[in-house]
Amino acid sequence: MADPVSAIGLSLAVLTTFKEAYLLSKYMWRTIQSAKHHKSERFLLETEYRHELLYLCSLGRLHQKHAIFFADEVLQKAWLEHMRDVFECLSSEVFGQYAKLAAKEDPDYQEYSPFLNRAAAQSWTIDFSLAIEDDLVVAREKPLPDESSWDS
């Protein structure tokens, strides 16, 4: 049987790194939406970060509903360790440079980031909305850009 103390610590670490990755992903999505990139760059960035944000939102909702992902303890631990590693990588290596900007500019990040607020780091709940924003849904309703118009 797994050590309950280490299982609890691992679960909290996953939830903490999830919160950070989600908040930074959401900040990046909003930033990309307002950026003045060339159409081709913007389309590729929007697609990539839309995927990240939808994935994280789905995973967060799954956690809110069930709190565990697998009944099998060994599989649960293996997945939790993997998710913690992925979220840590996203938070530090992928979004790391944007965390400073988000800390200055994004009210959601300022309020809910577990790396900025001790209470958020110790919370077992996701205290921010995981609602799908309209621009995430509308993004797929738009036609794919014609390559010939990307740089115009």
If you had to describe this structure to a student in words, what would you say it looks like?
- The chain has 7 helices and no strands.
- The protein has helices at residues 4-34, 39-66, 73-94, 96-105, 107-112, 118-122, 134-141.
- By secondary structure, it is mainly alpha-helical.
- The longest helix is centred in the N-terminal third of the chain and has 31 residues, at 4-34.
- The protein has one domain.
- α1 (4-34) runs antiparallel to α2 (39-66) and α1 runs parallel beside α3 (73-94).
- The model has no long low-confidence stretch (mean pLDDT 74).
Question: How many β-strand stretches?
Answer: 0
Number of helices: 7
> Which secondary-structure class do the elements indicate?
mainly alpha
User: Considering DSSP H and I runs of 4 or more, what fraction of the residues is helical?
Assistant: over 70%
Spans with pLDDT under 50 lasting ≥5 residues?
none
The N- and C-terminal alpha carbons lie at a distance of: 61 Å
Rg, rounded, reads 17 Å
Mean pLDDT: 74
Compressed to H and E, one letter per element, the order equals HHHHHHH
Please identify the oligomeric state: single chain
Biggest β-sheet: count, sense, barrel?
A: none
Rough outline: globular
Strand content: under 5%
Provide the number of structural domains: 1
Task: Summarize the entry for a quick read.
With 152 residues, the chain is mainly alpha-helical. It is 72% helix and 0% strand. The protein has one domain.
Write the layout of secondary structure elements.
Elements: H1 4-34, H2 39-66, H3 73-94, H4 96-105, H5 107-112, H6 118-122, H7 134-141
Helix pairs in contact: 1-2, 1-3
